[in-house]
Structures are given as C-alpha cells and as structure tokens.
Amino acid sequence: MSLLVLFPFLFSLCVLTVRCNPISGLTSLPPSAAKVCTLHNSFEPNFVADGDYVIGGIFPLHYNQEMPDLNSTYRALPVKCNGFDPRAFRWAQTMRLAVEEINLRADLLPNYTLGYKIFDSCAYPLTGMRAALAVLNGLRESDSPMCQGASPLLAVIGESGSAQSIVVSRILQPFRIPMISYFSSCACFTDRKQYPTFFRVIPNDDYQVKAIAQLLVRFNWTWVGLVRGDHEYGRFAVQGLLRELQGTKVCVAYQEMIPLLYNRKRALQIMEVMRLSSAKVVVVFSAEGEMTPFLRDYMTQNITGIQWVASEAWVTASVFTASEFYPYLGGTIGFGIRKGHISRLSLYLQTINPQMYPNNMLVKELWEALYGCDPFALPGSLLPPCSGQESLLEQHSAYMNTSNPRVAYNVYKAVYAVAHSLHNLLLCQLGTGPFQNKSCAQRNNIHPWQLQYYLQEVEFNIAEEKVNFDLKGDSIPYYDILNWQRGKGGNIEFVNVGLFDGTKPAGEELVIQEDRIMWPCFTPQVPVSICSASCLPGSRKAVRRGEPVCCFDCVPCDSGKISNQTNSIECTLCPEDFWSNNDRTVCIPKKVEFLGYDSLGIALTVISMMGACITIAVFAVFFYHRNTVIVRINNSELSFFILFALTLCFLCSLVFIGKPTFWSCMLRHTAFSITFSLCISCILGKTLVVLAAFTATRPGDNIMKWLGPKQQRTIIFVSTLIQVIICAAWLIDDPPSPSPNTQYERSKIILECSVGSSIAFWCVLGYIGLQASLCFVLAFLARRLPGNFNEAKFITFSMLIFCAVWLAFIPAYVSSPGNYADAVESFAILASSFGLLFCLFAPKCYIILLKPKKNTKQHLMVK
Ligand code: TRP
C-alpha cells in the first residue's frame, strides 16, 4: 500500500481537507473548518536543508523535558524541553557537516543533493515519538505529503537512547523507513521481527556486558554493585550482565535503579546501600541525564573508595570532566565506543554562532550554556548580554571536544552509510536490479524499503575503517577501555588503557595495559571488591546459607585433611601413611613412634642398668663372702643362679626400648619369659629345699637326698625348659613381629611388636604366674618354720610383690596404647626384678656387710 494513503491516518496532527478525505461526506465538520488543510500542531525542525533526497535526524538536544500539563480545558502548549546539551548539539552539527560534505563530493551522489530535517527528542521517549512523527511529516501544509507527491524522507539518523529509538523504530516500521542509530546499543534491537528497519553503527550491548564481565573477572572484583537508569538500555544491559556473570566467580551485591524522574530521596537510599556494602566496584548503566544529578548528590555524601565501572553511555560524557568531579570519579574505568577523526569538524563547529543563526533558539541556548550570556539580551533578561561573536575554543569541551569524537563519529558514519547506499541504489543498472523482475528503484520515487535493501548490503571505508551491517543491523564490536585520570588543569581526562575487540577469538578479546591505569583515591594497587576474603591454604570455603556464593566463611581443614590452594572448596584427605601438618597445607609422612631413647626410654634404661649393676654387686658380695655361714646356709649355688637370672631379667627390659625390629620383637617376650621362668624356678627350688630341710623331722630322713644339688638343677632345668618349649612353639608358629599401628592415634604410626599368637603370649605369662603362685604357696607353708634366718618368709614376701606387680601389669598393659604398653611391660619387669632382688637379698646383704657378728652359726641357728 502506498505511503500516501497511510499518512493521513497516522497523523492526527493534520486535519484533512474534504478533498483529501475519502470519508469526508460522513463527517459533520463545521463548514468553515472543512475546506482547508491545516497542521494540527506544527513542529519546527531545528535544522533543515532541502535536497533531492531528504534524511531525518533525531538528536537529544535537551536532556530533560517538562512533564506535560494534564489540564485539557485549553490547548496544551508544546512540550517544553530543558537542559540544553551541547554534546548532542555537536552530533547534530556533525550530521549537517556530513551531508554538506557529501553534497560537495563528486564521487558520492554526483548530481544529487542530500537534504536533512533535524529534530530534538529531548532524550525522552514521548518527545522522541513527536520527533519521529514530525520527521515523517511535511514542514508546511504545502509540503504535507498527502497533499503533494511522495515523501522525500528516505531514512532517519537516530535516535540516541535506546528507549527513544524503540519508539521511533516502531513508528517508522509500518512505512519501512530505515533508521540508523548512532548510540542505541540495547541488545533488544537484535530482534529483527520487532525492529525490521533498525540499523546501528554502535556495537550491541551483548558485547559490552561480555567485556565488563571479563574486566570484573580480570581484576578479581567478585562482589559488585549494579546501578542502572530506568530505561530499556539499563534493563537489558543489567539482564545481559547477570547472564554473563553466571558461571563466573563474580556475584552481584545489589542492583539499584535510578528513577526516571530523578528523585533525591531515592538516590540517597541508593547511596546508603553503596556506602554500607563491601562491594567497592559499582557498574553503572546509565546516561548523563540521570547520572548528573545522581553524581552531584553523591559528592555531598562523602562516600569513598568507590571504583566506578562506566558503560559507554556516560564514560565519555564531557559533563563529568569538570575538576570538581575528580576526587569522586577519578579512576573510573569504562568502555568507550570506537573513536575516529573528522578532519573538518572543529572548523565547522566554529562557524556556528548566534549571528549566523539569529532565529535559531538552539544556537542561543548554546551560547547560554557555553558563555553564560545571552546574545540577544533584551532589557530584563536574566543573563548578561554578549556579542555572539565570542570565539569557540577547545576549552568549551562540552561542545568543542572534537579531537576524538566517538558518538559524533558514529553520526558521521551513519550519514555516509545512507549516502553510499543511495549511491549504490542510483547506480542500479536496468534489468540487473535486486527488486521484482530485476527492476531498480525509480530515481524520482525511491521507496524507503528499497533503500533499506541497499543499506543492508552497503560496505565502505571511512579512514581505513570498514563500515557495514550484519544481518541484524549491528556493526563491528569494538571498545576502547578508558580510564579517568587527572588532566593538567585538574579536570578529568579520558585515557585509553586497553581495548576490547569482539571479533577476536574468545579469551583474546580484552587487552588491558594495567600499568597505565590510575585507580581511585591514588591507591597504587587494584581496588579490592570482595564479599569474603579468600580462604588461605589450610582452610576451605563454607558457603553461608541464603547468601551468594561469593560470601563464605573459611573453615580450617580437619586434621588429616589438607587444602593447598587458596579458596579451595574442599579439603582433601591425606593418603594412608600421611597426615596433615599443623597448617593443614601439606600431607607429611606420619610420625613413627616407638619407645625410643626419649626421657621415658632413658629412665627405663638407667633403672635397668642400675638393677643389673646392683645384682652384680650383690653377686660379688656373695661371692666374696661365699664361705660365711649365711651364704652357705642358704644354698649358695641357688643364690648365684637367682642372681644370674635376675641380672638377665634386668637386662631384658632393655630389649623393649628402641625401634622394634624383627629380631627385637622375637627376643622381647621370649627373653623376658625365659629369664623370669629361670629366676622363679630357682626360687621355687630354694623354697623346696627350705621346706624339705625343715620338714625332715628325723635326721637321716632321706627327703634331703631327693633334693640334692643335682635334683635341684634338674627341677630348675625342667621347669625352665617348659617355658623354652612354649616360646619355641610360639616363635615357630606365629612369632611376634613389628607392626605399624594407626588405630590408637590417627596422626601417628605407632610401631609396636604385635604379639603374634596371643594364646602363646598368655600361656607364657600364665606359666610364669603358675610358677610364681606355686612358689608363693610353698613359701607360705614354710614361713613359720623355725630358724633365726628363715628364708621362706622373704620368699613369700617377694612372691607377693611379684604377683602384685604382674596383676597390676595386666590391666595397665591391656589399656596402654602402643609404645606405652612396652614401657609398662618393661617397667613391670624392672619392678618385679627389684622386688625379688630386695626381698631375697637385702636382709642377707645387711647381715653380711653391716652385722658380720650375726653371721655365725650360733646366731643363725639359735633355737
Ligand atoms: N547506549 C545507550 C542507549 O542505548 C546510550 C544512551 C544515550 C542512553 N542516551 C541515553 C542511555 C539516555 C540511557 C538514557 O540507550
């Protein structure tokens, strides 16, 4: 359907003439209003130039608008826009410059001229819509498209903010008029079904959020705050960033939204959240419009240490370059869109002054904004008057920042894209065209959709940079990483510290020169923004319930487990024979423990050596006094045997000290049991002798004959032999052997001698017990026998001690862990040996050495 028919329905702005309105016969318009075509409301373009082909431009020349009056008792005044934006004004001028440049070129659109109509969107969707409608409409009744031929509007350059672009795109869409945005980066535009005529010369935000996510990961900023403006741009960017952060170690501490209509109370609440949070990095998706009042309030709040991460929408906003912002915003890092060079821009901008455009309100406002004066001051105006010929200098950076234009460069590219497409369209050779039946577009009646075809296909270079659009109308993703540093005048300068090239393979996209970055508050290191400090090796992370994964506690590893990396999630168990060190950072071989020559071992050694020495000393005394009565009376041979056995007993406790080896284990119990058996056998022999000697009532009773020295030796031999046999059986069948024991203490290996066959072990002990008990019973019977020196009572006593020691030994042995069991056993050996030694030999030694007078037959035999 032809555009011409659609226009009248679309524009309620235009009251149609009866002549034009097909259904006019049915309407009952007052006759006076009926016959003329008048604009319902006219919107003057801010800049306009006629040409063979006209393109529209929509720029946010003001960053604010007054809310419309809802009173409908009178005709509403045109929406009032406030806050002149010199930056957007520069973009608009860039469009004019580009068109003028193209018109002068002989190689691009020769013989044709481009025209333009530039409107203000006031950075607001509703006003953007007005601009879109206005750009479609003719300027006067006489050029009202429905009243006069075809719409000459072929394409629209615009809009800036995505929220406005969405509205503009929706309005242009039914007419298939292509639009090329120079600043709308919202990822939402990739939906070709919803925005079929949308093109842009700025990368899609999907790339920007990817870049921001990589930046956060790169600097280990794992706890970040997100602040956004209340518009599609902010909403989609935050959504995208959250999606991008999934699966990384970065968590979002808070998400805040600056309201569309700036509200100080709400802003202060957001700042309170920022102040209280430990997230020092704040990513902001917003534009100058909201950011300016927000940051002004922020500066009054005395919040320090914030590292701002700026999105492309405000990272190069010249409003913030003023020196007052430096202490608060210095160090900000952000992603700036690609810059370029427009050689004539600076000169061109300088040509604009109030005298050249006396009727243009915007130029007046520019002067007001830059010089604070009114070039057309009437008496009573608020600002001081000025000539209007003041020179524009670089210091008027809000307007004159032309060295490295970014958005302006996009505008420039967009205009060239239209021109090149149009050029290609006009080059179309009849019969080879892309349209139905290989037709071309008609030069004098080009339809915008025909231009769209060529836009989609266009590819050209501007200063070595390739410009084209992909199938979704997007352009090449490339960002500069900018860092806000202090300039010479104390103002803020944007310093390039790296780049993000989305066309590079994954992982190589982000390049940062870290040494060039200046951090906020002059700190030399990268700011830290984490929820919980990382867990050192030796501990692991424990996630806090209901909190993001970046917030965790560090729990030290249990003993026996280690973690050797920072931030480990789990502690790993040490292998079998290893144990954790004190710091729980490495597994070290377990300590092997045994009864060694430590204090306990040394004490036992000393005691046993002492015992052996004392026994030898007693032996010497007895040997020296072997002819005295007391030695002879008590069967000197047996006494020497006992002393010999006791010496061995003392010495065999030494086998228990030191590292258990195959031999020492075998030796331990066997040596001990055999020497003790020998010892007790001797004592038993002695007891028997005593008993026999005194029970032999009549002299010549031959009981003594049966217990002569020979028999005594036999008894001793046999009863010791039994023990030897038991031991031999033990050693052959299941000998004790060294065995590492990890049961008592998990952190140590206790090297002990396993007994092997425990039956044999208890048999051996039982046999000694049996011998001792027998000895005890016999000695007990003989204790009251006459004689001044009755050995039986000493034997009874010694056996009592012996049995007591060994009875006490059993529970102590069973319950002592590992190496202490050895100590207990060796101690029992020593104690019982000392018991025997003292009970049996102390009284005699006393008489021999101290009371030699008593050492006579008479004395001992008194009765
Ligand atoms: N890239 C932003 C966008 O797509 C840039 C922008 C321009 C903007 N003007 C704005 C963002 C106003 C928010 C508000 O929208």
From TrEMBL:
<keyword id="KW-1003">Cell membrane</keyword>
<keyword id="KW-1133">Transmembrane helix</keyword>
<dbReference type="Pfam" id="PF07562">
    <property type="entry name" value="NCD3G"/>
</dbReference>
<dbReference type="Pfam" id="PF01094">
    <property type="entry name" value="ANF_receptor"/>
</dbReference>
<dbReference type="InterPro" id="IPR017979">
    <property type="entry name" value="GPCR_3_CS"/>
</dbReference>
<keyword id="KW-0812">Transmembrane</keyword>
<keyword id="KW-0807">Transducer</keyword>
<keyword id="KW-0297">G-protein coupled receptor</keyword>
<protein>
    <recommendedName>
        <fullName>G-protein coupled receptors family 3 profile domain-containing protein</fullName>
    </recommendedName>
</protein>
<feature type="transmembrane region" description="Helical">
    <location>
        <begin position="636"/>
        <end position="658"/>
    </location>
</feature>
<dbReference type="InterPro" id="IPR011500">
    <property type="entry name" value="GPCR_3_9-Cys_dom"/>
</dbReference>
<dbReference type="GO" id="GO:0004930">
    <property type="term" value="F:G protein-coupled receptor activity"/>
</dbReference>
<keyword id="KW-0675">Receptor</keyword>
<feature type="transmembrane region" description="Helical">
    <location>
        <begin position="600"/>
        <end position="624"/>
    </location>
</feature>
<feature type="transmembrane region" description="Helical">
    <location>
        <begin position="826"/>
        <end position="849"/>
    </location>
</feature>
<keyword id="KW-0472">Membrane</keyword>
<feature type="transmembrane region" description="Helical">
    <location>
        <begin position="715"/>
        <end position="732"/>
    </location>
</feature>
<comment type="similarity">
    <text>Belongs to the G-protein coupled receptor 3 family.</text>
</comment>
<feature type="signal peptide">
    <location>
        <begin position="1"/>
        <end position="20"/>
    </location>
</feature>
<dbReference type="InterPro" id="IPR000337">
    <property type="entry name" value="GPCR_3"/>
</dbReference>
<keyword id="KW-0732">Signal</keyword>
<dbReference type="Pfam" id="PF00003">
    <property type="entry name" value="7tm_3"/>
</dbReference>
<dbReference type="InterPro" id="IPR038550">
    <property type="entry name" value="GPCR_3_9-Cys_sf"/>
</dbReference>
<dbReference type="GO" id="GO:0005886">
    <property type="term" value="C:plasma membrane"/>
</dbReference>
<dbReference type="InterPro" id="IPR000068">
    <property type="entry name" value="GPCR_3_Ca_sens_rcpt-rel"/>
</dbReference>
<dbReference type="InterPro" id="IPR001828">
    <property type="entry name" value="ANF_lig-bd_rcpt"/>
</dbReference>
<dbReference type="InterPro" id="IPR017978">
    <property type="entry name" value="GPCR_3_C"/>
</dbReference>
<feature type="transmembrane region" description="Helical">
    <location>
        <begin position="794"/>
        <end position="814"/>
    </location>
</feature>
<dbReference type="InterPro" id="IPR028082">
    <property type="entry name" value="Peripla_BP_I"/>
</dbReference>
<feature type="transmembrane region" description="Helical">
    <location>
        <begin position="759"/>
        <end position="782"/>
    </location>
</feature>
<dbReference type="InterPro" id="IPR004073">
    <property type="entry name" value="GPCR_3_vmron_rcpt_2"/>
</dbReference>
<keyword id="KW-0325">Glycoprotein</keyword>
<feature type="transmembrane region" description="Helical">
    <location>
        <begin position="670"/>
        <end position="694"/>
    </location>
</feature>
<feature type="domain" description="G-protein coupled receptors family 3 profile">
    <location>
        <begin position="600"/>
        <end position="863"/>
    </location>
</feature>
